[in-house]
Amino acid sequence: xxxxxALRPAGRRVRCSARPGTVVLMRLGPWSFRFRIPCRVxxxxxxxxxxxxxxxxxxGHPDTGIESFVLRREEDGTVRFTVSAVSRxxxxxxxxGAPLLDVPQDRMTDRYLRALGTAAPGDPFIGLR
Length: 129
Description:
Blueprint: E1 13-15, E2 23-28, E3 35-47, E4 50-57, E5 63-73, E6 79-89, H1 92-96, H2 102-119
Antiparallel strand pairs: 1-2, 2-3, 3-4, 4-5, 5-6
């Protein structure tokens, strides 16, 4: 599992191939209230014991910031998934709801973790060989 494919099982609709410089357009929410979430891939990590990517938000994204997703296998075989994010509200409605934004961000992180668990059941490194 690499690149933006990690977002699909978490409920994000993604159209792209995750290469640095690629614009990713995600959508979130029900049909007529769906948010467009544009981002640009900054980095793609494809190392023997690390896989992941990082993206930055683009104008039109509800937030302004950078987020990364990295899956790493330690020397002892332990697998770690790290989600790092630095952001601030990017629109009037996210500034208005800023005190409540941790809830949907935490919910998405939980969905990413569940998606990893179902992506390749029983595979200790989820296909990252």
